[in-house]
Amino acid sequence: MPPPSSSGAPHARSGRERIAVIQEEKKALSKSDADEALAGLLEWSEPVVFDCLRECYRFRLEEPQAASLARRHARQWRALIAGDMARFDELRRDLVDALAAFELDVGCMLEADVGVLAELYEIAMARFDRSPRSAQAYRDALSALAARLAPPKGEPVAA
Length: 159
Description:
Layout: H1 15-44, H2 46-58, H3 63-82, H4 85-101, H5 106-127, H6 132-148
Helix pairs in contact: 1-6, 2-3, 2-5, 3-4, 5-6
C-alpha cells in the first residue's frame, strides 16, 4: 500500500477503484429513483390498474363478476407495488382460487397482468417524456414488478 499523502489521506484511487465507486453510487441512485417511482405508482396507479383488469375480465365474464375479480386482482397489485410480498402471495393464491370458480385459469390472470404493465408503462413514459431520469426510474420500477409477477408455484400456465 502506498504511503499516505502529506494530508494524511491515502493516495488517489486507481482508475478501476474510481469506476467501481461510481458504479456503486449509480446503482444506489438508480435504486433510490426506482423506489421513488414505486411510491409514485402507489399514489396514482390504482384506478388505472382496476380499469385494465376490469376490461380484461369483461371479455370472459358479465359485469358484476368482472368487476368483482378486478377488485380482488387490484388489491393484489396494490400489495405488489407496496412491496408487501407476503400479502401479495396470499392475495395471488386467493385470486387463483377465485378464477377457478369462474372456470378461468392462471393464463387469464397473467394476460391481465401484462395488460396492466403495458398501460402503466405507456402512462409513465408519456408523462415523463421530457425527464429521462424519471422515465428510467419508472422503467426500472416496472421491470422489478414484472419480475415479481411469476406464476404461482405449481400452477399450470394455460391460456
